[in-house]
From TrEMBL:
Protein name, per record: Acyl-CoA/acyl-ACP dehydrogenase
Alphabetical UniProt keywords: FAD, Flavoprotein
Keyword Flavoprotein included in the entry's annotation: yes
Keyword Flavoprotein carried by entry: yes
The species this protein was found in: Kitasatospora herbaricolor
UniProt xrefs under InterPro entries: Acyl-CoA_Oxase/DH_mid-dom_sf, AcylCo_DH-like_C, AcylCo_DH/oxidase_C, AcylCoA_DH/oxidase_NM_dom_sf
Domain Acyl-CoA dehydrogenase/oxidase C-terminal as annotated: residue spans: 244-392
Entry similarity comment: Belongs to the acyl-CoA dehydrogenase family.
Length: 572
């Protein structure tokens, strides 16, 4: 189930994709663990990786939509394919967050460009990718964060059809070297949303001033300042409400990448953790012979596999999206909020087992334990994404619609809809296929059945004791409710992907053993909320469940976990 560079064969993709993915793995493996660790500790700029990516045409192939590919050699390999983008996210996360980050912010920087009708800038971006450049997304500001309603980047008309831009941006990845920076600002002469502007800037311009790296890390997360930067008409990407929508839709595209990066980080850390525990003897016993160690490592493995299943299935909905099917807009913040926080839990479970080993400088785990914390906090906090998820709850649980089945999407297709998503509104009107279908198809799995009892109970709670008007203003209360709802959505896509991939039945049961316990944990939190009514609190206690125990099943899943010991170690 886990990515292993020793045996990796991306046979599900076309030949150019297989070559690029395998070349990326081989580059990291030949570079070796010592170089990986030394550059991380020294906070060395990853110029060697960017040179490799440029030489291979990696970013150009994966991040140029087919319509912008041109006619030059290699153009046939270019497309925006979420399945292979997710695959590269996982690989880059496996070797280090910094390598993933420079790729991720290039994706964000390209979002407003590929959504724009400005053919000149699109052609410029495509050529920059071909030449090996990276991009940046100039949205966040020190005073406002990523609040796109407020920006102090001011564009003043120059009297010749263009503008001069002045202001600062903060927390901008690749801002030190980006060939193109998509910058969000507002006109000085137009009030309200109609004054928004997205424009393309160049970090090499004399009016672009790099202030500093704002993080203490290998990656460069810049603060930059524009002083009367000339913005010509041909540099403008979007104006007015379209600029606002471009910002949100870009984040819709970009935030999906966090889930598979988190998966990659956890996979590498798991090989190290299981191998260390399996080879260590304490009090005359193998560490992995202690029951609590087996439980923690089994839980970590089950959670990690669930992360992979959910993320892969969410990608199918992303790739199959259309103006008539916007279900991806729920599954997308779910990948951002749920999968990345699950990644933190996976690392914590393993860290409890390996203890002090997790601090040692010559391990990957030491870096994973630091970097895994960042993913839930990028592209909107957990709370922001959970509040977004709540917008879908009514239609998802109570108002299903008919849709044609979404197949597994590993075809070599260009996901061009992602750059014509349209206005970023109407989320509460989006409808979903009946979530019960996936649960019904796996009703024979004991813990799926038990979790289904809890999910049905959530529907009963909302039908009989829905949040009052006062509770609907209490975000702390609503977030507890949102965690329960998110588990139902998470379980649905896990089940769908388990069926598509023929997942081992024992492992699926073990995953839902974890979800049953998680539902009980969040129900307990809801019970303790001061804003909960007596009826809601009583419901919470009534829906605590113990998972169905099966010693044989747990032993068989443990054998899968134990098999990871020695399965992979990065060359020195």
């Amino acid at each position: 189930m886990l990515f292993n560079p020793r045996t990796y064969d991306p046979a599900q993709f076309d030949e150019p994709t297989r070559r690029l993915l395998r070349a990326t793995v081989d580059w990291f493996e030949s570079r070796g663990k010592k170089a990986l660790i030394d550059t991380y500790v020294d906070r060395a700029w990853y110029g060697d990786f960017l040179e490799f990516a440029a030489k291979e045409g990696l970013f150009a192939a994966f991040l140029t939509p087919a319509g912008e590919a041109g006619q030059e050699a290699g153009a046939g390999a270019k497309r925006w394919d979420t399945a292979r983008i997710a695959e590269l996210n996982e690989i880059l996360g496996f070797y280090g967050l910094g390598y993933w980050y420079t790729w991720q912010v290039t994706i964000l920087g390209l979002g407003p460009v590929w959504q724009s009708e400005n053919e000149a800038v699109r052609a410029r971006a495509a050529q920059l990718l071909t030449d090996g450049h990276v991009m940046a997304f100039g949205l966040s500001e020190r005073s406002h964060g990523a609040d796109i309603y407020s920006t102090d980047m001011i564009l003043t008309p120059d009297g010749e059809g263009g503008f001069t831009a002045s202001g600062s941006k903060y927390y901008i990845g690749n801002g030190n070297v980006a060939g193109l920076v998509s910058v969000f600002g507002r006109r000085s002469d137009v009030e309200g949303p109609e004054g928004y502007v997205f424009f393309a800037a160049d970090s090499r311009h004399e009016a672009y001033h790099l202030v500093k790296n704002v993080v203490n890390a290998q990656m460069y997360v810049s603060e930059f300042r524009l002083d009367e930067y000339p913005v010509h008409a041909e540099d403008v990407l979007h104006t007015g409400k379209a600029a606002f929508d471009a910002a949100l839709n870009t984040v819709n595209v970009g935030k999906f990448n966090l889930c598979t990066a988190s998966v990659g980080i956890c996979e590498h850390a798991m090989y190290e953790a299981v191998t260390h525990a399996h080879n260590r003897v304490l009090y005359g016993k193998k560490v992995t012979d202690f029951p609590h160690v087996r439980r923690e490592l089994t839980d970590a493995y089950a959670r990690l596999v669930a992360m992979k299943l959910f993320s892969a299935r969410a990608a199918d909905y992303f790739r199959s999206a259309s103006p008539e099917d916007r279900r991806y807009l729920l599954f997308n913040p779910m990948t951002k909020m749920k999968v990345t926080t699950e990644g933190e839990k996976v690392i914590d479970l393993m860290w409890d087992v390996i203890a002090a080993k997790g601090f040692e400088a010559d391990t990957y785990f030491d870096k994973a334990a630091k970097d895994i914390r960042g993913l839930p906090k990028l592209e909107g906090t957990v709370h922001v994404n959970l509040a977004l998820i709540l917008k879908f709850m009514g239609n998802y649980l109570f108002n299903p619609a008919e849709y044609a089945p979404v197949p597994s999407r590993l075809d070599a297709a260009d996901d061009e809809f992602l750059f014509r998503q349209g206005p970023a509104r109407g989320l509460g009107a989006i409808r979903f296929h009946d979530w019960r279908t996936a649960y019904d198809r796996h009703a024979q799995v004991p813990n799926v059945a038990r979790f289904r009892e809890q999910a049905d109970g959530l529907c009963a709670l909302l039908a009989a004791h829905a949040p009052s008007p006062e509770q609907q203003q209490d975000l702390d209360f609503l977030l507890s409710l949102g965690q329960l709802f998110a588990l139902v959505v998470y379980g649905q896509l896990v089940l769908e992907q388990a069926e598509l991939t023929g997942l081992d039945g024992d492992l699926l049961d073990e995953i839902f053993d974890v979800l049953v316990r998680d539902f009980s944990t969040h129900a307990t939190e809801l019970h303790g909320k001061s804003g909960a009514s007596e009826e809601q609190a009583a419901w919470a206690l009534a829906h605590l469940r113990r998972p169905v125990a099966d010693a044989g099943r747990s032993a068989r899943v443990w054998a899968q976990v134990e098999g990871l010991a020695g399965a992979y170690e990065m060359p020195a």
